[in-house]
């Protein structure tokens, strides 16, 4: 290695200063020669010795090549399939209307969700005024939440007439409600506990103050002053149990957060330009995602059926990679629309000031960091309402971490399997796959630097999702239309 | 705009410091509340107000997506065409052997190139010893060089049995020889002129020294000393006409430069590891390029024939973009192999120390910079032997620039049209297209920043070349196989 690293050495350059002098004079003389010399000893830029490191142009190159490749795929797709985008179909998909009937079981289920909400609020009110015992109240909450989460599973499974989008909306809504009500119940529990202990304390303090009379009047007065100041500002804040009303609960249910608290930070005014931009992004983004689905993903997924069944590795990989790119783009759009446009829109309308909905997961150097940063509402809920409470109860951090992970895996599975009515474990497996993946990405980060870790994260995002989608599609078709369809396809 | 730029303001924040105090106290009180608040006023990272700008992860994303897209195309290609790589065919292509006979007209032409070289050297020798007049010598050189450049044109056009690769090798070799001999002749002319003027000067000095006798002996002695020093080192350098020998000429002809000078900078030793790496790169790189050609470019180009003839814009564009990416990759490989591996290999063997074969053209922000940096041997030749001499002759810089541009266009056309025997002007038009393109890229650079200029340069590289290739291929097929083939294709 050293032989190459030393760069180009020149004749006589190794001899001492006398030689160098000669060299310098020679160079000077060479310059004055009549043959107008232009060559001088230099390394090529791409040689290691040159020390040249400016390759920023290749970043532009990569993005340009990516755009050109994308444009070509777009053209190829249009030539092959024509225009598949059909807004009429969107209407049917989005409203959950299909040929089978005019029932709207999804809408019924969505409207029904008010029931467990009211039930939860009433239970809390009963607990606040101590009509029912704490044990009884907690029992009622647990039953209410369990019914909330299992009701859609049962209804969607046994009742026909659910569209895929309708059923997905229902399971998403019920999942979110479950998390929000859990937070609501737990925060109110904290407040009740605090009220009780402060009552106990003030009782104790009263009994104490009778025993030890004030020694230092001045300090006591100061203390009282600052206490007054505190209670003055405390009066600006909503205090338990004043928060237990429908208005406050519905504000929380609409607010872009899963964590309840009594006094959310508020913005002063609604920025109209900001709001209009977010509304436009949501409307345009949904159209874009639907276009990507109809035009790119559905044909790719359909074409993948045979290779996946026949275990044709080359063809299946090709299909997988073909699906990967539009799927990934749709996911990116979905992320932006949901976490930036939609949640900011909600926040703006509701004067909700905390817009910290996602971190810079695109720079994540390992899978753990990605999971910690891409979905902050869920991440913060999991920390505040599952991880820390478990740790406080005396469980180890590892146990708490694993619990969070399994609950997360359950909800992933719930939001996919229930609408599809395909109780396969691909989403669950996908979540489980995160554990070895996390170790791989950390290993890559340690061994090959942060860049390599980031690439592993991106690769798992780009490849992992379409793999699960294909698995589900394959199983969905097999279970619902049987082997016969597969054979029909095989003959084409 | 200002409404959005100001970010999220909070209730009462506009009131004076008293309000801010309250806010601070309130925040403190909120922290101590039993509901464990976690929300605080913040903007989303992707909002303008957040000021967040770290998107380095997306650079990795782009490169990864590019690799995945490339991998898919690779798989698709193998599934569609099977393995097209056929080393046996390479042998035929590279040796220029084909079915028509065992003649090797390319090799004959390559060997014949010694004749103009020797003729050039003899003419120079004759000029040096003043056997022939300068006018006569220059006439002989001009005729020799013109014959040199037009001979392959005539022979390849009228003689059958040239393979495409053989004919390309011949035209490339003769082009390089033309430029090198031009440089050789011009440098020797400069030396002769210098010798003549110094003879005249020394004659004049002799006649002068008789008239004015030395007044200051000491200064004169000093002067003589430094002159002695100079002539000592000058003795280390080769002086005209000692350079006029076969060894020196052939060293120059083999050396990785187009600009002749009497004393090239030399390296001290051959770095064996460096040399082995370059040899490996050349061998592996040629295989890679041939694979790209056989497996990707030839099928794409063949499939483009019908859409280009029928002026089917969508299909033709799709074909063009499909061809663009392997073509561009092949071009990048070719650049690296030729300019880094091959020229460094030659330089290392010949102890040639100036390895400045290319600049950082990948960062070029406009087309002009690209042309000035991507091919330094030709660029330096054009400056030294065409541009500056023309300027010195009193022509304007613009005239000189245009002349360089046209000679460059001629050689591009020469090296493409002659081997293809298709005297269409696509390569020439491609060169002409650089003028408006240069203006566009400069406009983009000025209006949208350096990044945009760089993107225009890359786009012209990625799209421009395959467009020319398709034009040539189309015309080649039409002129050599006629309309009938096209119609045959049409029926398939």
UniProtKB/TrEMBL annotation, chains A, B:
<feature type="active site">
    <location>
        <position position="412"/>
    </location>
</feature>
<comment type="subunit">
    <text>Homodimer or homotetramer; both forms have similar enzymatic activities.</text>
</comment>
<dbReference type="Pfam" id="PF03062">
    <property type="entry name" value="MBOAT"/>
</dbReference>
<protein>
    <recommendedName>
        <fullName>O-acyltransferase</fullName>
    </recommendedName>
</protein>
<feature type="transmembrane region" description="Helical">
    <location>
        <begin position="107"/>
        <end position="127"/>
    </location>
</feature>
<dbReference type="GO" id="GO:0050252">
    <property type="term" value="F:retinol O-fatty-acyltransferase activity"/>
</dbReference>
<keyword id="KW-0808">Transferase</keyword>
<keyword id="KW-0812">Transmembrane</keyword>
<dbReference type="InterPro" id="IPR004299">
    <property type="entry name" value="MBOAT_fam"/>
</dbReference>
<dbReference type="InterPro" id="IPR027251">
    <property type="entry name" value="Diacylglycerol_acylTrfase1"/>
</dbReference>
<feature type="transmembrane region" description="Helical">
    <location>
        <begin position="139"/>
        <end position="158"/>
    </location>
</feature>
<comment type="similarity">
    <text>Belongs to the membrane-bound acyltransferase family. Sterol o-acyltransferase subfamily.</text>
</comment>
<keyword id="KW-1133">Transmembrane helix</keyword>
<keyword id="KW-0472">Membrane</keyword>
<dbReference type="GO" id="GO:0005789">
    <property type="term" value="C:endoplasmic reticulum membrane"/>
</dbReference>
<feature type="transmembrane region" description="Helical">
    <location>
        <begin position="329"/>
        <end position="347"/>
    </location>
</feature>
<dbReference type="GO" id="GO:0004144">
    <property type="term" value="F:diacylglycerol O-acyltransferase activity"/>
</dbReference>
<keyword id="KW-0256">Endoplasmic reticulum</keyword>
<dbReference type="InterPro" id="IPR014371">
    <property type="entry name" value="Oat_ACAT_DAG_ARE"/>
</dbReference>
<feature type="transmembrane region" description="Helical">
    <location>
        <begin position="386"/>
        <end position="411"/>
    </location>
</feature>
<feature type="transmembrane region" description="Helical">
    <location>
        <begin position="452"/>
        <end position="473"/>
    </location>
</feature>
<feature type="transmembrane region" description="Helical">
    <location>
        <begin position="423"/>
        <end position="440"/>
    </location>
</feature>
<feature type="region of interest" description="Disordered">
    <location>
        <begin position="210"/>
        <end position="230"/>
    </location>
</feature>
<feature type="transmembrane region" description="Helical">
    <location>
        <begin position="164"/>
        <end position="185"/>
    </location>
</feature>
<feature type="transmembrane region" description="Helical">
    <location>
        <begin position="279"/>
        <end position="298"/>
    </location>
</feature>
<dbReference type="GO" id="GO:0019432">
    <property type="term" value="P:triglyceride biosynthetic process"/>
</dbReference>
<keyword id="KW-0012">Acyltransferase</keyword>
<comment type="pathway">
    <text>Lipid metabolism; glycerolipid metabolism.</text>
</comment>
<feature type="compositionally biased region" description="Basic and acidic residues">
    <location>
        <begin position="214"/>
        <end position="230"/>
    </location>
</feature>
<feature type="transmembrane region" description="Helical">
    <location>
        <begin position="55"/>
        <end position="75"/>
    </location>
</feature>
């Amino acid at each position: 290695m050293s032989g190459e690293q030393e760069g180009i050495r020149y004749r006589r350059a190794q001899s001492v200063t006398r030689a160098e002098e000669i060299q310098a004079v020679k160079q000077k003389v060479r310059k004055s020669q009549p043959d107008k010399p232009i060559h001088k000893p230099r390394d090529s830029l791409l040689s290691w010795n040159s020390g040249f490191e400016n390759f920023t142009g290749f970043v532009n190159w990569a993005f340009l090549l990516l755009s050109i490749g994308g444009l070509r795929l777009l053209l190829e797709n249009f030539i092959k399939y024509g225009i598949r985008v059909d807004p009429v179909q969107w209407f049917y998909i989005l409203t959950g209307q299909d040929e089978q009937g005019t029932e709207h079981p999804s809408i019924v289920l969505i409207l029904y969700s008010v029931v467990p909400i009211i039930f939860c609020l009433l239970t809390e009110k009963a607990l606040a005024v101590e009509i029912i015992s704490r044990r009884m109240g907690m029992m009622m909450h647990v039953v209410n939440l369990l019914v909330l989460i299992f009701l859609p599973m049962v209804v969607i499974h046994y009742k026909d007439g659910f569209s895929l989008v309708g059923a997905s909306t229902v399971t998403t809504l019920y999942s979110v409600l479950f998390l929000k009500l859990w937070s609501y119940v737990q925060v109110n529990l904290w407040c009740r506990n605090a009220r009780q202990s402060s009552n106990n304390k003030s009782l104790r303090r009263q009994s104490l103050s009778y025993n030890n009379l004030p020694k230092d009047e001045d300090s006591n007065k100061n203390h009282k002053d600052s206490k007054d100041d505190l209670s003055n500002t405390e009066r600006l804040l909503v205090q338990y149990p004043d928060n237990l009303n429908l208005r406050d609960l519905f504000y929380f249910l609409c607010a872009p957060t899963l964590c309840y608290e009594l006094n959310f930070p508020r913005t002063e005014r609604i920025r109209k330009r900001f709001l209009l931009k977010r509304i436009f992004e949501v409307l345009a983004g949904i159209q874009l995602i639907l276009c990507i689905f109809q035009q790119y993903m559905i044909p790719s997924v359909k074409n993948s059926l045979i290779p996946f069944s026949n275990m044709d590795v080359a063809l299946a990989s090709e299909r997988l990679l073909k699906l990967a790119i539009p799927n990934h783009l749709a996911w990116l759009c979905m992320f932006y629309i949901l976490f930036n446009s939609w949640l900011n829109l909600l926040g703006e309308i509701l004067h909700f000031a905390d817009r910290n909905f996602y971190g810079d997961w695109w720079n994540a150097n390992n899978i753990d960091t990605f999971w910690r940063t891409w979905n902050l509402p869920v991440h913060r809920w999991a920390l505040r309402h599952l991880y820390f409470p478990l740790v406080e109860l005396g469980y180890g951090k590892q146990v708490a971490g694993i619990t969070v992970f399994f609950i997360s895996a359950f909800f992933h599975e719930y939001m996919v399997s229930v609408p599809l009515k395909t109780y396969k474990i691909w989403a669950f497996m996908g979540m489980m796959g995160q554990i070895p993946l996390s170790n791989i990405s950390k290993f890559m980060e340690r061994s090959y630097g942060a860049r390599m870790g980031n690439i592993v994260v991106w690769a798992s995002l780009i490849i992992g999702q379409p793999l699960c989608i294909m698995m589900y599609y394959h199983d969905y078709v097999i279970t619902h239309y049987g082997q016969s369809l597969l054979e029909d396809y095989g003959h084409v």
